[in-house]
Description:
heterodimer; A: four-stranded antiparallel sheet; globular; B: 114 residues; seven-stranded mixed sheet; four-stranded antiparallel sheet
Amino acid sequence: AQSVAQPEDQVNVAEGNPLTVKCTYSVSGNPYLFWYVQYPNRGLQFLLKYITGDNLVKGSYGFEAEFNKSQTSFHLKKPSALVSDSALYFCAAPNNLFFGTGTRLTVIP
Amino acid sequence: KAGVTQTPRYLIKTRGQQVTLSCSPISGHRSVSWYQQTPGQGLQFLFEYFSETQRNKGNFPGRFSGRQFSNSRSEMNVSTLELGDSALYLCASSSTSGANNEQFFGPGTRLTVL
Lengths: 109, 114
């Protein structure tokens, strides 16, 4: 069965520190992977995607994600967290049919 | 370009009733997908329509149905509502129905079943 998993329901990080939101996947075929962010009272917004090529994908708002085939992971990262990054983050794949359960990121001032 | 719009934004229904939700995709987008979002389950895929044809369907009972019109607008219907159907229903559109296409989400319709 195909799926994505986000092992952490909640991630807290201090402002200015690097952040990582984890995602692992189990898919057959090409692992097209996506990250979306949901701010309070708003719909999901696309952040970035991995299709093929470079394992490090850069996206919106300074976010990037590293695709690791051997570990079947696609972790979301940012070098320096902002308070405004506090939101709910979802990993998805493939065809956007499978979403993780979400990770709530809180950046502490 | 206007984003994805969903109507109504809020709905309150009682068990046994039925409900219809509407979604207007971004102009030019032909693929519309529906998702159910609940706190414990995250986002669960309901179905996808492309050019008025259902392309994919998630693991939901037959009470959940949808359709797409020639102008790409889509409706989702839930019949015989149950308490567990209370959720945020999100609609998303993309330009095509490809596996590598990102989606653009609407603000959602929050359905409460009493």
